[in-house]
Amino acid sequence: MARAGATHLAGGLWMVYLWEVVLVSSSKLWEVPMAPYPPANSTAKLLWEPQCLSQLRHLQDGARITALIPPRLEGNWISTSCEVRPGPEFLTRFYTFYPGRLFKALQFYYRDGSCSEPIYTLVVRGKLRLRQASWITRGGTEAEHHLLKVGVVLHSPRALRELSTRLQLSCTGLLSRQWAAGRVYELFNARAGRDCLAGLGFSMQELGLLRVETQHRPHGRLVQELFLGDVHTDWAQRIQHRPTGYQSPLQSAMHHIHPCAVCGLVYRSSEHQPPVLPRPRALALALGGRWVSGQCEARPAVLFLTRDFSFHEEHRSWEGRYHHYADPACRQPTFALRAVGHYAWGGPSTTVQGGTELVFKVTWASVTALDQATLRALNDSRPGSCGRAGGWVLGEEQDVTFTGGCAALGIRLPHREYELFKMELDHRQRPLLFTGERPTDGSSPDRLDKRPTSYQPPLVQCVAPHEPPPPPRYSQHSSPHHHHLPPSTATSSASAQSPLLWLSVLGGVSWHLFTAH
Q1: pTM for this structure?
Q2: What average pLDDT does the chain have?
Q3: How many CA atoms lie within 13 A of 452 on its CB side?
Q4: Where are the domains of the chain?
């Protein structure tokens, strides 16, 4: 029954999307169905608390962020911090796009989580062709790339030994010679038929999906960001992965945030002189207060959302609010999820330098339908599987705890996840909270071996610990201390039965419209 409900929900939502497509009569590649944004004074806007309104104001004012389709890529694009990819891999990037479709990408890899000990640099040259506006990820542009050459510059004899071991199966003897500073070893040459990339797990599939955003800031200042496709969290899948979400953005070398010490270091770098980032001041993980998204976040499998967390360190409790949208500007809400639970500290991560391990548990949840498609899907759900059967009302929050979650959405309660956190300061010395990246396949990190090794976009603190957020509110059906869970639902795995949606404690709900059968 859960599977049938998931199929019905997937079919309903997909038919709504196809109906929108039919209404658009155009053969142009760059036109996609886009519903009109609500007016500036629309009641569809989120009513955030005053302390956090400024952090999310740009989500309410689409005029401050613009995105052209197709995007203009020409120029230099640089990392603004040490990036962490699944694995983990620590790197910075410097990409240059030239007129005439040619590009050069420098990827600098490091041994440490602060990007201060370079190991090697990949020099990637190729061609890029923009194809069309994405019909899967709204606001994105699909592209195809053709690699011409890939070389590697090793920055120490130790790097030579380590990469020789990784490459010995695909290209025996390539790096067997004595290390020479500044030498470029050719790993790939399309014309010569050489390909030694398999041992590195290297892929430029990130170029398959692009989006350029321009932020219009006070006093006429601009900040331009280049979002490239996400990197699959499963190493074995990344080479063939077709991105539907984004990774951390690069910024234009001409229009970037100020001040930005990292920007200058990356821009002045080369394959022979990689940027050596200063080691940041170590910050103890302090979760207290309230944290919100700094941008409209995109997830793989067609999902846009904002996150809003409150942590109560004295009780080790937390509350999360996830608002989901149908558009990349986060102005067309579809549904909201509120979750409450507890967390336990682990310790410093032995896998990801600078990270801290935690365990989170969800014990209470509610859902609010914010558009007609979601409302119909929830009202059609099986009785006893998702709140009050047939009792869903647009804009009205409904507790789903007493039904053990919501089978139609793949939400099961109670639920546990193994997490990875870290804290940093941004360019304005504000605290940032990084939470673990969700598995690309939409599943939950509910086992130790699925604990994240990379991070989601950071959350910005908008209420300090000395300004305690209001305590969680609960419906008449349940409280965090009194649960009425039917035994069969408390232990069942709704996420295994319903491949449509999953509740992920700190990442929201992942929509998988194409996996239901």
Answers
A1: 0.82
A2: 81
A3: 31
A4: 2-9+49-62+282-467+478-511, 70-267
Res 5 pLDDT > 60: no
Look-up of token digits 């109670």 = 414
Residue 226 and residue 212 in contact, taking contact as beta carbons nearer than 8 Å: yes
Averaged pLDDT for residues 143-161: 94
Q: Mean pLDDT across the stretch 140-161?
A: 94
More confident residue, 125 or 20: 125
| Cα(437)–Cα(12) distance, integer angstroms | 29
Neighbours of 405 (CB within 10 A): 28
Residue 342 CA to residue 359 CA, distance in Å, equals: 9
Burial class (CB in 10 A: 0-12, 13-18, 19+), 344: exposed
The count of other CB atoms within 10 Å of the CB of residue 158 is: 12
Neighbours of 365 (CB within 10 A): 25
Contacts by residues 143-146 (CB-CB < 8 Å, ≥ 24 positions apart) = 143/207, 143/208, 143/209, 143/210, 144/207, 144/208, 145/103, 145/204, 145/207, 145/208, 146/190
Q: Provide the β-strand partners of residue 84.
A: 90
> Six-digit token pair at 153?
């510059």
**Contact at 8 Å (CB) between 345 and 400?**
no
Residues 287, 360: contact at Cβ < 8 Å?
Answer: no
CA torsion sign for 160, 163, 164, 170 is: negative
- Flag whether pLDDT at 408 surpasses 60: yes
Distance of CA 358 to the CA centre of its chain: 19
Query: Across 4-18, 157-171, 228-242, which has the greatest mean pLDDT?
Result: 228-242
Cα first-last separation, the chain: 12
- Report how far residue 228's alpha carbon sits from residue 209's, in angstroms, rounded to the nearest whole number: 6
Counting residues of the chain whose pLDDT is more than 70, the rounded percentage is 76
| Rounded-to-integer distance, Cα 419 and Cα 346, Å | 9
pLDDT value at position 182? 82
User: Do the beta carbons of residue 82 and residue 424 sit within 8 Å?
Assistant: no
pLDDT tens readout for residues 308-328? 999 999 999 999 999 999 998
**Amino acid at site 199:** G
Tell me if the bond preceding 414 is cis, omega within 30° of 0. yes
For 351-491, strand residue ranges (E) read: 356-369, 397-399, 405-406, 411-412, 415-425, 431-435, 459-463
